[in-house]
Every structure is written in structure tokens, then in C-alpha cells.
Specification:
The protein has 75 residues and is of the alpha+beta class. It has one helix at residues 29-47, and strands at 7-14, 21-26, 53-55, 58-61, 64-74. Helix content is 25%, strand content 43%. It has a 5-stranded antiparallel beta sheet, with helices on one face.
């Protein structure tokens, strides 16, 4: 009997605008975490949001989530 293993992808979700947008998707959570760091650094440099901190796979600014990693199950 074959055992099915669930597969997931991890998306970088930007919540800075009026609706969520996704910039990239990854098959490994490690790669998504690396991209989240790059994305947060870009927000710091490009938009001057120097107080953004990464907490629990989320880019936070004064208690507001600006960017995060979302996990999606593939069928």
C-alpha cells in the first residue's frame, strides 16, 4: 500500500496594499524564509520602513503584518 505524502508550497504574501499580492512561491520553507528576509530588506531600503522586524515568518511594523509566508497544500 502506497503512503501519500502531502506536498506544500510557500508563498510570499505582500499585504502593504489594499489587497494581498504574491511575489514568489517556493517548494521549500527555507527558501521562502530567505526570500522573506530579502523582501523585508527591500521594503526598508525602497520605502524607508526601517522599523520592520521579522517575527514568526512575518514582516511586522508597529504590530501590523506587512508581508508573510503562506503555506498552501497541493493536491
Amino acid at each position: 500500500m502506497d503512503q501519500k505524502t502531502d506536498k506544500y508550497i510557500y508563498g510570499i504574501c505582500d499585504k502593504t496594499g489594499s489587497c494581498e499580492t504574491y511575489s514568489k512561491f517556493f517548494s521549500e520553507v527555507k527558501d521562502a524564509k530567505d526570500e522573506l528576509k530579502k523582501y523585508v530588506n527591500s521594503l526598508k531600503e525602497d520605502l524607508g520602513m526601517f522599523n520592520i522586524k521579522i517575527q514568526n515568518d512575518k514582516g511586522m511594523l508597529n504590530g501590523t503584518v506587512l508581508v508573510l509566508i503562506k503555506k498552501f497544500k497541493l493536491n
